[in-house]
């Protein structure tokens, strides 16, 4: 066990750090750009210097780097305020799925542009009737010559409004049990018949979208995996989602223990800094136990991955612990601010509104990417080996599965 | 970075685990709990023969000179089986105190005997309810030796020597006291975990030699507690895993409403939560193990984090294990009680949850 960098890792870290120092754009270079343009600008600069999607093969735009090198790069990049969330889906989920299932020719065409940020990708999985029960999705694809014709609706698609391509799971055979009738495609989001409608959240943001498909044509060459194999391909994507969503959270833009220590040192409670208060200390300690614990779960998982292990269901712990914790932290921070906590204004609020945003964004955090309850089920069933919930749709054709109280 | 135990350490874990499964089933724990025997002497003898008491003692003092990572591995396995032996008192506390603060003469005298298991040590701080370091220290050392009473000393009735905090004038120091000498009376006391023996130690002019620096008593206790906290945390992790296994096995076997109760989400999520708390405690203990084994400056924060996580996980796991068992869980007949008792005992020894939450925050503020 060695928690420190090896000599080679330290050298790599120094190289990364030096490059970042010299190349992270100054604010004036970003002048006049939208957040998306800023993100693309920075991503392109990384790509041009060989610092994009480090773990991908070089021929697909990556660096052939190890897991540990990727983590070192992420850690160093997090010290600068430039982490672009807009590429998280494309780099974390779409790319790895393509690498696993697309042809080399396709990967040579698409991957470098994902890596460079020139093309943004999204993930079209969830549906109004297929959330926690994802495989119950109903968007259909019907074969027509060399194409498939897609009709239906997706929802909760992050970043669809500025995506160039998307990965898509659809039902190609409703007459077989639900998992067997799915197929997986990637498509051009500019295809005729694709309509994107943003969903405004309680936080005021609109990061998610509804995506409607009306007679959208997708070439059969853009199918990943065999017809009917869509669920297995989707599992590749979901496995990578686990590895990328997880705990994280060292940046300054999110509610974490570092930010809370700053707040508790500053806010007065009963005549001294709140952090002197025993009840405040007990809460802070409990959150730190979780935050540090998740960090070290991540390190253990990274050690396993560097031996060649695939991230398994045990990584579900990250989101299950971090999402409700952020809600508790934000809630408590607002309580401590008392009346002033109600003000939500970048100029006037403590920490530029970090805790107000944290409070309003937290409910979404507990639902997106798998609800708390689904995460607990995954741990119970896939890690501990407990029996599955009773499934009344098991083994029967999808068309015969009850879908509402009135059906 | 490599955040894993080595192959050799994992082999030690397998050997230790196999040995303890053979030699320390729950019936062994039950025997000690229900008898007047203070600990399982046969099991202790075998543990000594395998060299576990000598693990982290340097070779020059008759030890094996292994790292604290090996000791963490052993601690987890002992925790798993709720071992009724004085390992934590003698190894995590008394041995550490002599190792860190003993003079060359004290180390030369005591460490070889600790290593070979011919003596057992214990650690005595408390005199009344509450956090010992915050209370007035009544035990005092004068011209006539040590006088006063220490309460609830774990293994105090069976140990050969004790590390005792006592005042001399205005300052508090640590002293090494031969419990087999004159001026020592041991009063065995009943506790919530009779699988581990406890005594009040009444000193009246006992021979006491200074350990470490005069006046540095509580500072030394804090350092030894930080080191021991990591090892206790590994015992707590081991115990939490046993509680999870026990709850899971029972839930898979027990049928209600026509299916195993393990299939109901109320039970599944309960067990998932035990897994989560145990995993957080384990991962924090990894970091604690690294900090302890490398003498890292991060040890106070790492130890406090592992300790708070260990206390919380073990309590939660054992309470919810009983809940999963339903009515049978709180009967004398079932084994759930051993874990529930030990969880609370380990939580109180070396300072409770609130004490360590405060230490954690203090360390976090120092690091900020």
Mean pLDDT of chain A: 92
Tell me what the CATH architecture of the largest domain in chain B is.
Up-down Bundle
Outline type of chain A: globular
CATH topology (fold) name of the largest domain in chain A: Butyryl-CoA Dehydrogenase, subunit A, domain 3
Estimate nothing, just give the exact number of structural domains of chain B.
Answer: 3
**What's the number of domains of chain A?**
3
User: CATH class of the largest domain in chain A, please?
Assistant: Mainly Alpha
Helix content of chain B: 40-55%
Estimated helix fraction of chain A: 40-55%
Uncertain ranges of chain A: none
Q: Which structural category fits the helices and strands of chain A?
A: alpha+beta
Gist of the model:
The complex is a heterodimer of chains A (407) and B (368). Chain A is an alpha+beta fold.
What does this protein look like?
The complex is a heterodimer of chains A (407) and B (368). With 407 residues, chain A is of the alpha+beta class. Chain A is 42% helix and 14% strand. Chain A is built from eleven helices and ten strands. Chain A has helices at residues 7-23, 35-48, 67-77, 88-101, 104-116, 230-245, 257-266, 278-306, 317-337, 354-365, 372-383, and strands at residues 121-124, 140-144, 147-155, 165-171, 182-188, 194-199, 208-219, 223-224, 268-269, 272-273. Chain A is globular. Chain B has three domains: 7-115, Orthogonal Bundle (Butyryl-Coa Dehydrogenase, subunit A, domain 1), CATH 1.10.540.10; 121-216, Butyryl-CoA Dehydrogenase, subunit A, domain 2; 218-367, Butyryl-CoA Dehydrogenase, subunit A, domain 3 (Up-down Bundle). In chain B, 54% of the residues lie in helices and 15% in strands. Chain B is built from eleven helices and ten strands. Chain B is globular, with a radius of gyration of 20 Å. The mean pLDDT of chain B is 97. Chains A and B meet through helix 7, helix 8, helix 9 and helix 11 of A and helix 7, strand 10, helix 8, helix 9 and helix 11 of B.
């Amino acid at each position: 066990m060695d928690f420190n960098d090896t000599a080679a890792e330290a050298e790599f870290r120094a190289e990364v750090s030096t490059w970042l120092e010299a190349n992270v754009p100054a604010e004036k270079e970003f002048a006049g750009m939208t957040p998306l343009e800023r993100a693309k600008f920075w991503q392109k600069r990384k790509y041009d210097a060989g610092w994009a999607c480090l773990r991908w093969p070089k021929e697909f735009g990556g660096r052939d780097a190890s897991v540990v090198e990727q983590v070192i790069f992420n850690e160093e990049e997090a010290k600068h305020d430039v982490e672009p969330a807009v590429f998280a889906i494309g780099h974390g989920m779409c790319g790895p799925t393509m690498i696993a299932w697309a042809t080399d020719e396709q990967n040579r065409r698409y991957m470098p542009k994902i890596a460079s940020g020139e093309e943004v990708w999204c993930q079209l999985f969830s549906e109004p009737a297929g959330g926690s029960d994802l495989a119950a999705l109903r968007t259909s694809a019907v074969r027509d010559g060399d194409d498939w014709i897609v009709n239906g609706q997706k929802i909760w698609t992050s970043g669809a409004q500025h995506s160039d391509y998307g990965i898509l799971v659809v039902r190609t055979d409703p007459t077989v049990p639900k998992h067997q009738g799915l197929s997986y495609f990637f498509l051009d989001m500019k295809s005729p018949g694709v309509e994107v409608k943003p969903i405004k959240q309680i936080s005021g943001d609109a990061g998610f979208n509804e995506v409607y498909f009306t007679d959208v044509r997708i070439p059969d060459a853009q199918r990943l995996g065999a017809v009917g194999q869509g669920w297995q391909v989707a599992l590749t994507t979901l496995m990578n989602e686990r590895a990328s969503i997880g705990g994280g959270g060292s940046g300054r833009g999110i509610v974490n223990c570092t930010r809370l220590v700053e707040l508790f040192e500053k806010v007065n409670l009963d005549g001294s800094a709140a952090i002197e208060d025993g009840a405040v200390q007990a809460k802070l300690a409990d959150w730190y136990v979780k935050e540090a614990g998740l960090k070290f779960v991540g390190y253990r998982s990274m050690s396993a991955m560097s031996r060649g292990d695939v991230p398994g269901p045990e990584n579900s712990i990250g989101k299950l612990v971090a999402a409700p914790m952020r809600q508790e932290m934000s809630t408590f921070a607002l309580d401590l601010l008392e009346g002033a906590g109600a003000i939500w204004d970048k100029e006037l609020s403590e920490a530029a509104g970090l805790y107000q945003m944290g409070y309003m964004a937290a409910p979404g955090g507990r639902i997106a990417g798998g609800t708390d309850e689904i995460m607990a089920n995954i741990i119970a069933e896939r890690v501990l080996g407990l029996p599955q919930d009773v499934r009344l749709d098991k083994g029967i054709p999808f068309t015969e599965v009850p879908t509402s109280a009135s059906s | 970075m490599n955040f894993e135990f080595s192959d050799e350490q994992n082999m030690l874990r397998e050997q230790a685990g196999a040995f303890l499964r053979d030699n320390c089933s729950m019936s062994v724990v039950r025997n000690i709990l229900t008898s007047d025997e203070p600990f399982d002497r046969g099991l202790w003898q075998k543990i000594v023969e395998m060299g576990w008491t000598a693990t982290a003692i340097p070779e020059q003092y008759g030890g094996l000179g292994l790292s604290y990572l090996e000791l963490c591995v052993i601690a987890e396995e002992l925790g798993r089986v709720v071992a009724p032996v004085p390992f934590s008192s003698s190894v995590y506390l008394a041995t550490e105190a002599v190792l860190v603060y003993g003079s060359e003469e004290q180390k030369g005298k005591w460490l070889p005997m600790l290593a070979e298991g011919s003596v057992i040590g214990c650690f005595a701080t408390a005199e009344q309810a509450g956090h010992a370091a915050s209370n007035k220290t009544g035990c005092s050392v004068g011209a006539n030796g040590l006088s006063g009473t220490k309460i609830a000393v774990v293994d105090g009735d069976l140990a050969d020597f004790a590390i005792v905090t006592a005042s001399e004038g205005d300052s508090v120091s640590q002293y090494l006291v031969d419990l087999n000498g004159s001026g020592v009376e041991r009063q065995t006391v009943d506790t919530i975990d009779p699988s581990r023996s406890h005594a009040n130690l009444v000193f009246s002019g006992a021979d006491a030699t200074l350990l470490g620096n005069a006046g540095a008593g509580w500072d030394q206790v804090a350092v030894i507690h930080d080191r021991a906290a990591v090892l206790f945390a590994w015992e707590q992790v081991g115990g939490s895993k046993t509680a999870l296994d026990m709850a899971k096995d029972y839930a898979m076997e027990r049928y209600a409403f026509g299916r195993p109760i393990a299939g109901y989400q109320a039970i599944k999520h309960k067990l998932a939560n035990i897994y989560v708390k145990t995993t957080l405690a384990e991962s924090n203990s990894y970091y604690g193990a690294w900090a302890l084994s490398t003498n890292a400056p991060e040890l106070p924060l790492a130890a406090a984090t592992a300790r708070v996580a260990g206390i919380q996980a073990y309590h939660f796991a054992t309470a919810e294990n009983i809940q999963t068992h339903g009515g049978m869980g709180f009967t004398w007949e079932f084994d759930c009680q051993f874990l529930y008792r030990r969880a609370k005992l380990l939580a109180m020894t070396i300072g409770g949850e609130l004490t360590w939450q405060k230490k954690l925050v203090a360390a976090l503020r120092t690091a900020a």
